[in-house]
Structures are given as C-alpha cells and as structure tokens.
Amino acid sequence: LTRETADLSGVLPSFGDVERAAARLNRWSVRTPLLEAHKLGVRLGYRLFVKAECLQRTGSFKFRGAFNRLSAMSEAERRRGVVAFSSGNHAQGVACAAQLLGVGAAIVMPADAPHIKIENTRGYGAEVVLYDRFTESREDIADGLVAERGATLIRPFDDALIVAGQGTTAMEAIEDAAAIGISFDVLAAPASGGGLIAGCALAGAAMSPKTRVYTVEPAGLDDHARSLRAGHRLGHAPEAQSICDALQATMPGEITFAINRELLAGGLVVSDDEVRDAMRVAFAELKLVLEPSGAAALAAALQGRIPGANSAVCVIASGGNVDAAFFAEVLDS
Amino acid sequence: LTRETADLSGVLPSFGDVERAAARLNRWSVRTPLLEAHKLGVRLGYRLFVKAECLQRTGSFKFRGAFNRLSAMSEAERRRGVVAFSSGNHAQGVACAAQLLGVGAAIVMPADAPHIKIENTRGYGAEVVLYDRFTESREDIADGLVAERGATLIRPFDDALIVAGQGTTAMEAIEDAAAIGISFDVLAAPASGGGLIAGCALAGAAMSPKTRVYTVEPAGLDDHARSLRAGHRLGHAPEAQSICDALQATMPGEITFAINRELLAGGLVVSDDEVRDAMRVAFAELKLVLEPSGAAALAAALQGRIPGANSAVCVIASGGNVDAAFFAEVLDS
Known about the structure:
The structure is a homodimer of 333-residue chains.
Chain A: H1 3-6, H2 15-25, E1 34-36, H3 38-44, E2 47-52, H4 62-71, H5 75-80, E3 82-85, H6 89-101, E4 105-110, H7 115-123, E5 127-131, H8 138-149, E6 152-153, H9 160-179, E7 186-190, H10 195-207, E8 212-218, H11 223-230, H12 254-263, E9 266-270, H13 272-286, H14 296-302, E10 312-317, H15 324-332
Parallel strand pairs in A: 2-10, 3-4, 3-6, 4-5, 7-8, 7-10, 8-9
Antiparallel strand pairs in A: 1-2
Helix pairs in contact in A: 2-4, 2-9, 4-6, 4-9, 6-7, 9-10, 10-12, 13-14
C-alpha cells in the first residue's frame, strides 16, 4: 500500500468481506441475470455480457451494500435505527434493507427532490426528513439525528461493508460466466464515489486476476479517470453537468480510491449523447430499462472504447430508476 | 380424450416432449429470470412472480419452440431448409434458430410490414420473401417454397415440437419457484394460437398439478376464453382489434386446443388500456420493456382478475418487441 492509504489499512475491505456479504445477501438480493447481448457482440467482435443490475431490488445495485451494512449491525444498533442522506438510489437501497431487517430508517432528502423518489422511499417504510437545499446542510441534519437518536449513519460508498456488498455484483457475474466457460477480458462499471467499482475490483482480483477492471464516467464528471492517472484523488469541476444523475459525487472516496488505485486498469469516459444511445440500445436489443448512469458502461462498449476487449467483456448495467417522461424523451430523440 | 381430439392422439405432445425440449434448448436459450415483483405483491396480497421471457433470444418465447422444432430435423431435412410466414416474433424465432443450427430459412412477410421487423429477420441471416397482403396469399407462397425446395414449413403453434419447446418456459419457472420453496396457485400466460399456454399446461400438470393455468387475451380477441367455455373451438370476430399485435390468431389451434381444453382452468380477458397500464408498471417497477402482448398476463394480475390467487402467482411476460415510438407514447399517456 502506498503512503496515502497506509492509515486506511485497518478499514479496507478484502475479498473475504465480499464473500461474507454474498452469504448475508443470499436469498435477500436478486441474483440478477448475466445476459449475453448476442447481436451487439457480433457487431463488436467479442462476446458482450450485461449484468442486469437494474433488476435488483429497488432498481439498482445500492441495495446490496445497504443490506450488507445493516445486516452487520448489532441488535442494540439496529434498535437505534439508521440515517442516510441521498435523493436517489442509495436512499431506496437503505430504506428497503431497513424495512426487510426491521430497522427504523430516516432518510434526509431535499424538499424539492422529485416527488416519485420521496414517495418510493416512503413506500419502503422510511421516515423522510426534508430539508431546504439552499439554506440547510443535509450533513448537519443527519448528524443531528445521529446524535439525538444514537442512530448509525449509512454512508453511500466510503464504508468497507458497503464496498463489500457492491462487490457481490461482480462476484456473481464472474461465477455465472465461469459456469459457461467464459472469463472476461474486461469488466467495466460506472463510478460515482467508487464503491461499486472497488467492490468489483476486489472480486475480480481474487476470482479472475487476468480481467482488467475499468470505471466509466460521464465527460466532465470523470474524477476517477483523472485521479487514476494522477495517482491521487482529484475532484471534478463543480459546474460540470450530466444526465447521469447517480454519478455526481464530486471526488472518489478515501476507502474506495485506496482500493481502486491499486486494482483498476484505468478510467473511461462517455458523453451524454453516447449514454442516450446506450439507453436506446438497451431498450431495443436487451429489453431492459436503464437509467442514464446505468447505461454508461454499455455506452463505452458500444463506442468501441473498451481497451483489451478481445473475447469477452462484462458491463454492469447498474440501475434502472428513470422517470417515464425522460425515458420517453430519450426514445423519441 | 374427447371425440374432437381423438384423431390427434398420435401427435399430441406429452410432458416428456417438454423435458426433451429442455435438453435440446440447454445453453442455447436463455434461462430467463423468474423475478419477484415485491411491491406489487404487497399491494395484491400474494407473491407475484414474473417470468421475464422478454429477455429471451429474439425478445420473445418464440425462440424456444422454433429451436426445438429445428433441432429435431434430420440432416437431410436441414439441408433443404425451412419456411415460415409471420410478420412478428415467430419470424425472428425461426430465423435465429435456423442461423444457430446452420439451416437456411425463408420467411414470408408482408411487403408493408414494419421495416424494423424485416431488418431484424434479415439480421438473423434469413431470406425474406415479401408479398402483397392485398393480392397474394402467404400460405400459397410458403407452399410454393416448400414444394420447390423440399423445405419444411415451420408452423407458429399447431405443432407438437413447437408446443413442447414453449412449455420449457413454465418448466423453468416452476423449477425456480420450487428452489425457493414456492408453488404457484396460478400460472397465467397470453394466448394467440395457444402454443405457449398449451406447453405451459403440460409442464404444470406434470410438475405442479395444483397450479391452475389460465390464458389471458385482449377483449375482442378472446377466442380461447370463449372456446374453453363452449368446449369446442370458436373464432373471434374478424373486425376485432387490439394493440396486442402478437395475439391476433383468429382461432385456437387444433393441437393446442386439444391440450388446453383438458388442462386449462379458464380464460381471462383484459382491455387495451389495462395492457398499457401494465406496460407502464413493468417499466417503473420491474425495469422491463414489454410489448403489449407480453404485458397481458401482468395486466390481469394488476386488475385483480386472477381467480384463486392466494399465496403465489406466476405471470409470463412473453415478449418485448415493441417500437420505440409506440412505447414512448404509452409512457406519456
């Protein structure tokens, strides 16, 4: 381990943590299918596999990490509940995991978040605490709930158990591929804080060391690609925008980057138009509903941008939580 | 067997034929996932499972029957090729199966069929023979090709091997449910000529005899529901219309109805608006792209129209081949 990560050595997850997460998640998470995109593979010249994580509980991989994190809590901790702040997939993942485990959950969400996301989170039985994005700090509100209730804050990515839970995504994909005699040249997944890709890299390094693992990010939000080149964590420009609403974290996490710096082959970048095209291809060829962030890795493959893709590539389609009106607009464009 | 079916006794498929189809299809067809619709199940008061057959090769279950039928051909027959007429899912199923097995395929399609369907069929390497719907008979053209080439006509449903292949859909669903301790009260699938439901009924009767099997049809095209009540085959009014373009066969098949009359519990009916609603629910809750016909059985469940649904129901989401513009229109409505 390099100097920056030395002080994290006690908290970094290992592949053993991914295996333990898989045991906890067994029968609770969906073992999402590894779908082969036959026609796209013919066009690309290699076998293309899509890990359809949009079919996961709550519509994204976030359920895995959240459930693993909450499962590891003591009875006393569970009684005091959990707190999270998120307007998106992490909120739903934590709320659903908490409901299944009988743990109280308070989710701090902006008052102007899309109504459907607030309703979905409430639909899993969570208490939604609304705040004003312009005058209040969600961190302060969450800290207040933690202090007042003794609740546990569930971070979206910079947590060893969250990373380990997300890693089960790649573990399943590598197992399912091995069962049909396939080992991946490359595994590619979108990155925001880097929890999914870090967990996948742990699984890849242990189970399929020849597989090169890449992040995929939208142009402008490519802080992982730049950080991996620089060898240390860099943020992206705060004014950068993308339709990939789940890939907006401003900088790689500490724990996640300590893993990713050691294990990843690099970072790939796609444009919003390329993501829209991948959403349309997923609709037409795969019959899957992907949200923009969930289509980013597929977009990289469709653009011929996966280095070292020779025989078989796995792209993780990480989520499918997209508004109907926006999806219709993408189909019509 | 009753009088009408007595002369078919030699050609009716058995559950053994479904098992043999499963062996032939192994590794060629997708073992499509049995997805639990958790939130919908809470609303409906029973566990709802969706067999996501839209994720099958070619986007519908039709690949199963076609591949099974072609696999059973002799080498001499394979050399002379196959012929089918269809503008929809059967065309793609036959073309893809033929390509995988190295068999030449000629598909007779109307010259004014949607361009995308013609292109998809050609994309599987099939020869597309266009005809004028208003002045020519597709049956005559297909018969001509059969006579001229010694090719084999692949019927869409009234064929024991086609029925047996489609039955593997329910076989997998019942197996996957048993693996998690579930047996279905009811299995419901859309019906056009009745091949899918007949195969599923064979699997259900052998593997899960307490499961009641129902057809689902669009209002006006409910010839199975009426035929099952009457005890003999009835057609639907020729002027009847529905957005369910894959459920337009005018009368139950002979072979299929001989099975269905003995094994089915009855026929359910849904409106086009109910089908549109089910397509939107599949989009939002399941992240699946369903064509109208593929959403019919889900629609019956969402309308509370499944008799005897107490603990667990399986609906077959039979296909996802839908134009982007139409899908966008459904999302926006």
